[in-house]
């Protein structure tokens, strides 16, 4: 690489894993669909703030992680993501059920001691265990908070609190902005590095039907983008999870994931 060429700043890594999805599988198939939507000739790769993401100096594509017999998937995910961070890249992971966020945040916590976590979801994912599985996609934020991996967890779009999960949220000091309390023009503020975990079911199924757990009454794509663009803070990493291509016959949701990827990537480059 010549001195005039810039090293990539962001890394994309696909996670082909949905073994901790409780109701149905399919989130493991997301990474190639999101990549294809991102690179589609149907649109351009310039974000709304004018950042040209087609430049080779922006993304390093680290390929996909998938289960290897005899290896612990959580360890594989944590180490793969940490390798990118240690190389000076800001990773954005694509695909998988939401259980993948726990090992990813473990990797980020190795570098950032005061991480803030912004979590978009219909569900709080705070179950101590779900159907006996402590690694369930319904439990990652319980594990993250128990292990004190972040200094702050802010959840947006929630509309499925059970009594147990409300207790968990109180115990862990989670700041939940439930759908029914969402105000227009909300501006989220963070005074430490922000990691965005985006469960695509935070969006209303009218906008993003390709998810395993459709929960009506959610965010519009525009509301989610506005919250990302408006937030005050430095975004250092992100994941886009729970997109299930098997539930997406019109191929709408892959494009929504790629749109969010463009806007989150542009925020990370600011
Ligand atoms: Mn989730
Ligand atoms: Mn969810």
What's this, in brief?
29% of the residues lie in helices and 17% in strands. The protein has 270 residues and is an alpha/beta fold.
Walk me through what this model shows.
The protein is of the alpha/beta class and 270 residues long. It has a single domain (10-131, 139-269), classed as Ureohydrolase domain (Arginase, Chain A, 3-Layer(aba) Sandwich). The chain contains seven helices and eight strands, in the order βαβαβαβαβαββαβα. The chain has an eight-stranded parallel β-sheet with strand order 2-1-3-8-7-4-5-6, with helices on both faces. 49% of the residues are buried. The mean pLDDT is 96.
What key phrases describe this protein's structure?
Arginase, Chain A, globular
Overall average pLDDT? 96
Strand arrangement in the largest pleated sheet: 2-1-3-8-7-4-5-6
CATH homologous superfamily annotation: Ureohydrolase domain
Radius of gyration: 17 Å
Ligand types:
manganese (II) ion
Number of helices: 7
The fraction of residues assigned to DSSP E strands is 15-25%
| N-to-C SSE string, H for helix and E for strand | EHEHEHEHEHEEHEH
CATH architecture: 3-Layer(aba) Sandwich
Decide which structural class fits the backbone.
alpha/beta
């Amino acid at each position: 690489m010549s001195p005039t060429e810039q090293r990539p700043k962001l890394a994309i890594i696909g996670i082909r894993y949905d073994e901790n999805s409780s109701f149905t599988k399919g989130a493991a198939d997301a990474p190639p669909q999101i990549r294809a939507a991102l690179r589609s000739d149907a649109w351009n790769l310039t974000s709304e703030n004018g950042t040209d993401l087609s430049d080779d100096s922006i993304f390093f594509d680290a390929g996909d992680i998938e289960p290897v017999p005899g290896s612990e998937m959580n360890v594989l995910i944590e180490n793969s993501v940490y390798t990118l961070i240690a190389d000076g890249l800001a990773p954005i992971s694509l695909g998988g059920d939401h259980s993948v966020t726990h090992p990813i945040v473990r990797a980020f916590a190795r570098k950032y001691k005061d991480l803030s976590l912004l979590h978009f979801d219909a569900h709080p994912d705070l179950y101590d265990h779900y159907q006996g599985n402590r690694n369930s996609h319904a439990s990652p934020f319980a594990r993250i908070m128990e292990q004190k991996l972040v200094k702050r967890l802010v959840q947006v779009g929630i509309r499925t609190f059970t009594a147990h999960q409300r207790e968990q949220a109180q115990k862990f000091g989670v700041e939940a902005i439930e759908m029914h309390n969402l105000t227009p023009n909300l501006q989220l503020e963070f005074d430490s590095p922000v990691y965005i975990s985006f469960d695509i079911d935070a969006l209303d199924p009218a906008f993003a039907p390709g998810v395993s757990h459709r929960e009506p009454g959610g965010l519009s794509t525009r509301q989610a983008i506005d919250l990302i663009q408006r937030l005050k803070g430095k975004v250092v990493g992100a994941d886009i999870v729970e997109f299930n291509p098997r539930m997406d016959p019109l191929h709408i949701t892959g494009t929504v994931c790629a749109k969010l990827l463009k806007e989150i990537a542009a925020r990370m480059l600011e």
